[in-house]
Every structure is written in structure tokens, then in C-alpha cells.
Description:
Shape: flat
Distance between the termini: 125 Å
Largest sheet: 5 strands, mixed
Strand order of the largest sheet: 1-2-3-4-5
Number of domains: 3
Number of helices: 9
Low-confidence stretches: 22-26, 359-379
Number of strands: 5
CATH topology of the largest domain: Trna Endonuclease, Chain: A, domain 1
CATH architecture of the largest domain: 3-Layer(aba) Sandwich
Amino acid sequence: METALLVALGLVVGLAIAGLAVFVARPRKPAEDPAAAQRAAEQAVAAQLGDQRIAELGARVQQMGELLARAQTQLQSSVHERLDAVTAHLGTSMQTASKNTTDNLQKLNERLAVIDSAQKNITDLASQVTSLREVLSNKQTRGAFGQGRMESIIQDGLPKGAYEFQFTLKNGKRPDCVVLLPDQRPLVIDAKFPLESITAFRDGKTDDERKFAGQRVRQDVMKHINDIAEKYICPGETQDTALMFVPSESVYAELHEGFDDVVQKGYRAQVMMVSPTLLMLAIEVIRQIQKDTQMREATDLIRTEVGQMLKDVRLLSDRVKKLQTHFGQTGEDLNTILTSANKIEKRAVRIEELEFDGDPVAPANVIPAPLRRVQGGEF
Length: 379
């Protein structure tokens, strides 16, 4: 803005000087009368004054040009400084943006790696679910699945010898597992998995379909209950109650929530349905019962061991008392030794200082008594 104003002012001054030059340079007519001569003289004076003014204007224009050059130089320096600052700031901003972009891309790659791993896990899980569905779709494999889960729970909760799989009863029947209790009557556990009827009941879309599927669930579960009660509950041989293991918490919850009448019929038939969690709890209770029984059976042995331990404690007490007596005698002997040492020390000091005044002189014919030999061979 300042540069534009200076340029415009220079142009105006230049035009004024050019106009004065043209005015002065015009040819004048010769004077014809004194008035004309006077005017000519005045014009000459005016021309001289014009030359002075032109010189002054030239000097001012030169000064203004110098000022204009300085202003232009300062403007160029300011522009260069601003451009350098803008360039440096732009470079720093670009470096920061590049670094942030690189970091974000690295984080994005890490997230993508995590997503790929999760996708792989989901794919593996989907394949496992598919294989599990194939296993559960077959009755034999489904039964093996339930029995395997029951066996793992029992093996983890009970020691060996406290249970037996595929135990043969006197009637020739072989339940999946029996738990040997202290009264020599085993507790029967049999695994059942009414999955097909439960699945049909869950998938029923209309009331008629759910009603028909509910009847099928009741029939299947009651058949399992009756089979266990008739085959595996033998009065006098087994416990009066048997366990029907349902290897699915959701199926067990569905039976208790929607088929309470079937559960009550199972109670009356002395067949109790248990889920994996309830089976773990029952196994823990059985383990505590077996432990208490073993403790009661080992009462005589425990008493014998306690009596022998009491004898050992009494013998230890007697030996400690004997040791205490020896320590007491040793203390007395040490006191006697210290007394003799003090006397000897006092006599040695008196001999060293030649303090014999007032001491009775022992008769020449008196034989000194021998020192008493204390325990350990020292005087």
C-alpha cells in the first residue's frame, strides 16, 4: 500500500515538471510596447523562478525516489522474512502431519492385525460350533459327549477307588457311573441328554408347535426317569436315590422353568436331575462324607498314635529336666571357680604392691591344704 502511494506521487510530480518545462520552452513574440517588455521581464523572472522550483522539485523527486527505494528494500526484506517464517512453519507442520499419519497408520495396522486374529478365532469357533452341532445331532455321539463330561467332573472331584464307570449291577444292568459310599451301597449316576425335543420346543413358532414339542419333552424325560428308576435303583444293593445328569445348564434350566411337573415326578420316582454345577456340588458333599467316614474308622489308630506321641513328650520332658540339673551344677561350679579366681587376683595385686603389713604370718611347720579339684580337672 505504501509503495503504491509513493509511485503515484512520483508520477504526479513528474507530470508537473514536464508541464513547466513545456511552458517555459514555448517561443515568445518580440515585444512591441513597454508593457510588453515589462511582461517579458516578468516572464523572464518567472522563468528563473520556475527553474529554481524545477530544481527544487527535482531534488525532492530524488529524495522521494530514495525513500521509495528504501521502502521497497524494507518491503522486500519483510516479505522474505515472512516467506521464510511461513516456509519453516509449513515444513514443521508437514513433518508433524507426516509423523502423526505414520503413527496412525501403524496403530491402524496393529488394529487390523488384532482384527485378523479375532476373525481367525471367530472362524475357528464357528468350525468348532459346527463340529459340536454335528456331534449333538447324533444320539450316540451326544450320549458319549454327556458321559465324557460327567466322567471328567467325577474324576476331578473324587479320588481313585471312590467311583467306578460302567459298573455291573446284580440284575446285569450297567449304569454310566456309580459312586461308592461308606455304607457299601453305590450311588448311581446316569447321563441323559434330551436335546432334540428341547430344541424343537425352543424353535416352535406357533402355540400348537410349542404344545406338541412340550408333550414330546415330557415323554422323553419321563422315559429317561422311568428307565433309571427301573434299571438302576435296586433296593438293598444301591442307594434309594439315583442322579440323572443333564450335561447342559441351559437344558436343565429349561426343564426346571417350563416342566416343573416332570421334575416333581422325578422326585417321586427317586430320580433327581442334576446339571454340571449341581453334580460338582454333590461330588464335593460325597467327598466330605467319605473323608469323615475315614476319620471315624481311623479313630483307634489316631488314639494309638496320640498315646505314643504323649509318651515321647513325657520322655522329652524328663530329659530336659536332667539337662536343667546338669546346667545348675555347672553354674555352681563356675561360681566356685570365679570366687577362687577373685581371691588369687587380690593376692597377686597385694604381692605386686608389697602390701604385707598386718597380714598374719603362717607358721613354718604348717603344711598348706591342697586345692580342691573341681569338675573338669581344673583347680
